[in-house]
Amino acid sequence: MSGPTVRPAEAGESPAIAAVFLAARRGLLPDIPMVHPDADAPRWIRDILFATTAMWVAVEDGGIVAMMSLSPGWLEHLYVHPQAQGRGIGAALLETAKRSDHGAAGLRLWTFQANAKARRFYERNGFAAEAFTDGSGNEERTPDVRYVWLAHSR
User: Fold this and answer.
1) Distance CA 43, CA 51 (A)
2) For residue 34, what pLDDT is reported?
3) In what order do the strands lie in the sheet with 106-112?
């Protein structure tokens, strides 16, 4: 088994990216509602994420095992398939985000307060919590936390 390759994603990979997103989301957060049908995930990735963010994937042994989307100053999404977690793949994507033009001055992100695994991951990688909400501003209506990483904190 070779290590993961991190590269820009291609719109034609939307179904494989959606499979990673759905598996990771359900594996980590089974009690947080999914606000869109599973069948809509490939269209959402192809038509919305590719149109509004820079999409990246991690590929291992020929298959997509993780996905990330970035906008200027924001890590919009980072999901690693449950079977690929704990092997440094998320950290490799995060380092790509920090080195990208989108992360030049720093990055912010949202995660659910209940997602303890993600919160530990981001904190280990230099992010600090800067705001907690009651969830009224997100589609899931679930309490979340905004994290920040500043490029000069490297």
Assistant:
1) 11
2) 86
3) 5-8, 54-60, 63-71, 74-80, 106-112, 144-150, 128-132
3-state secondary structure of 120: helix
For residue 25, give both structure tokens: 């989301």
What DSSP designation does 18 have? H
pLDDT at 104: 85
CATH of the domain at 13: 3.40.630.30
pLDDT band at 125 (very low <50, low <70, confident <90, very high): very high
Residues of the domain holding 61: 5-153
- Look up residue 2 and give its DSSP letter: P
pLDDT attached to residue 43: 95
* Number of domains, the chain: 1
**What confidence tens digit (pLDDT) does each residue in 46-101 have?**
999 999 999 999 999 999 999 999 999 999 999 999 999 999 999 999 999 999 99
